[in-house]
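Case study.
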Amino acid sequence: NLSKRLTLVAEQIPPGSTIADIGSDHAYLPCYALKHGLITSAIAGEVNEGPFQSAVEQVRKLNYTDEISVRKGNGLQVLNKGEVDVITIAGMGGPLIVSILEHGREKLPGIKRLILQPNVAANQIRVWLEENNWILINEEIIEEDGVIYEILTADREGNSPYSEEKRNLELLLGPFLMEKRSDIFLKKWKSELTSWKEIVQQFEKAKQTNEVVEKKKQLLEKINEVEEVLKWQN
Ligand code: SAM
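After joint prediction, the assembly is written out as follows.
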């Protein structure tokens, strides 16, 4: 059975797509998507030998070798132009996902949708999407085995989900997630607030250099803003 996390990623694939799953490990996601008729073909990319072999074996075991091409290589290097219309990258940190997209820039024309599931620092992905003219069209947040995950979907076209006044806050929390305010979302940011407050206490104990004072001020502003959001009533 596919994890709840990867099932949610799969749900973001428009039926009939061809996908590239980068950092595919066992190729569970493309195999699931093919089995459920979401895709016609896929590329599973892996940079490391162990996970690459796991993907090869999984695809062979399910007799999907005609439809799923398992390729070894770094990031988007495994793709040829025009081969797929959706890219999925799941289970890595936000900065690594951004770096894969950044280094694979020349492979992005022709891609219609990005489905990205960062384990941390989703805000860095939102910023990258904005700077590169991708439109964030959906966000999901879930908890599985005690870990909270976010799934970001971006298309080439659509209306910007960001407002002028709250843009920075929306880039941090996620405009759709802020709107939905699910229990998991509230839980995540309450826990972030707790750790930020601990950092403020560290700052208070430290020597009050200009840098410390400035950092503390910025963090307190961020705490206030996020607390405001958590206080809103539906
Ligand atoms: N995508 C799967 C998931 O969400 O369950 C596997 C996630 S696993 C934690 C991350 C995988 O990404 C590892 O198998 C790792 O080898 C691979 N990886 C890391 N950096 C990569 C890169 N630059 N290009 C391709 N694969 C990469």
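Observations recorded in class. The beta strands are 17-22, 39-46, 68-72, 86-92, 113-118, 135-144, 147-155. The pocket of S-adenosylmethionine is lined by residues 6, 22-25, 45-48, 51, 74-75, 90-92, 96, 100 (CB under 6 Å). We will return to this complex in the next lecture.
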